[in-house]
Amino acid sequence: MTRNYPSRMPRCPPLAHVLANLSALLAAALLCGCAMVRVNSLGPQQYFAMRRGDILSTGQLSAATQATLRVAALDESSCHSAPQACIDTIATVGGLSTGQRLACLAELSLQMALEQTPPAGTPWTDTQFDSWLKTARYAYAFLFLGQRTAGERAFEDRQTQVRDYYNYAVQELAGALFLRGTAETTNGHRDPANQFIAGWTIHIDLREVRLPEGVRELSEVIPATGLSFAGLHNTYRRDGLGADLVAVTQPAQPDPDSATTNSAATTAEDDANANAGSTFWFAPGSRPFNEMPSPNVTALLLFGNGTLEQLLASHDVVFSAYDPFRVKSVEINGETVPLAANFSAGYGIWLARSGFARQSLRSLLGRTRGIDRPRIYMMQPFDPDRRIVLMLHGLASSPEAWVNVANDIQGDDMLRQHFQVWQVYYPTNVPILVNLARIRQAVQLTLAHFDPAGKLPASNGMVLIGHSMGGVLARLLVSSSDDVLWVTVQNKYLPEGVDIIREDERLNRLLRFAPMPQVERAIFIATPHRGTPFASNRLSRWVANLVRLPIALLKEIDEMLQSATNADSTQRAGKTIMVPNSIEQLRETDPIIQSISRLPISPDVCFHSIIARRRETGPLEDSDDGVVPYRSAHLDGALSEKVIVSGHSVQETPEAIFEIRRILHEDIEVFDNQGAHEGACGGPVAVHETTQ
């Protein structure tokens, strides 16, 4: 039997009931106070801004500090309007770890210090000093007296941020302390060992800084992090603790025979004026050298090794500065900490202020305010334990020719540990043999000044690097002349029937020489060992006619040659000996260049060639770099030969700098294992490599 069940149709609730339920739900949501959570994906820029953005990089407080403020129930905007009250609260509020508290205090103090700091060059008030010192103290406490060591936090972004707060605070304080010290010196109230500011006692410790010899005062303290240099390809730094600074020195009292002073602000033009009226040779006891007048310095603020409470209550601090070439790390609170460093800034400032470019051309043309004798420029204060790389520039040039070569050598950690860079600056209008004798004397006088006994590592194992005409001079510094040049002068420069007296001491300095015993390796770059046809073309002849030799030099050379011959008064009357200038001596037909090309290089010296060719195609033997042909730059017996597709200024190419560094690295290995002059070179290996 079939049953019929009544159908059940759904019944719609009244509208009033629905509205009542919705109202109840809304009221419950409002009463519970639940936050709405959404998920967003971050791009790389937002990711790094969140992880590492802070008051220094973005001008806003870091995410970590904002989180700490929220934990402490503080509002970021109120902390900005009343920073000290916010700092006082963070210093005492509960619920924060030691690391959170100290890092937040460091950033908040830095924010307040930045807002209070006047424009650069304006002296600070005591309040400003106090803010910056507290910033450094909080950061120092975080780094060294927190619950965990710096090593345990090594990979944390927060430690990197707080280290930057410390470094930046030290940088700003260094400049302000220098300005304050300068003002106190002017007023006659300066204590060189201590400064008393805003209740703080700041002890000044400069024992680890090496200023140029005879220099006691600075003219500027420049933050290296704020500098950029056009023409300097790379800036070499070492990450670590401390502020990278350049200490620009005051001029030392000039030596009567010196061609320069020791200030980076002193230009090459001033050097020339200081040397007015000099004699042909360097006088005994003269100082033909300059140490780096703008050394790189790293500064620290050291707050002691007491407890955290003692440190935060202390107002006693040591401002300590270091030579980053010598000091790589420091001990702080039982931890070995790498020292920050900048190895390029001081060098860049020196070159930028040198005035070499203008002066080198004036010297070539014999104009006033040029130079008339070589100078040795040392890229760092003399280091007795580092061997010397001696660089010699080419015609119409200056140390600026080596800007990136020297910088890359000093930026290479291994090379920096083993070598110090010296650069020769010489007048390129002067005859080659005159420059040679003077450069040799300048180097020997400089070595004798710092190492009279000649026993230090710096006095042995020297490496020469010469470009163009500087390469010719470098080769002569490691060659033996015997009687070859006497015969050349006799046959090519004296009238028939006139003999030269070979015992004349002054001519002996020019015409007879032996290899410098300190040199163990040489690198010749684009060097016209046999002269160049470029020196004989129309343009070069026109330039050569513009070149003027110093009148005093011409007179002295003429007087030497006249007095060293047996010519009678009739033969000498109204006649002078023709003295060729530097361009004329680079002609392939010049008797001197032909003679010196045959002089033997010392068998104790390893030597290398770097040669340029303008075009990659065509026979190598027929190539040239636009100035020097391959046939003149090539030397048999070279331990290596690198051929690079480039113009004549090949020394500045990355390929040439890489080759120089390769040779120096190899030299370190060989020299350390065998020492100088112990057959380290082995047999010659001619390596022809062409690089685009």
TrEMBL record:
InterPro entries: AB_hydrolase_fold. Keywords: Hydrolase. It comes from the Bacteria. Residues 257-267 have a biased composition (Low complexity). The keyword GTP-binding does not apply. Residues 250-270 are annotated as: Disordered. This is Alpha/beta hydrolase. It comes from Paraburkholderia guartelaensis.
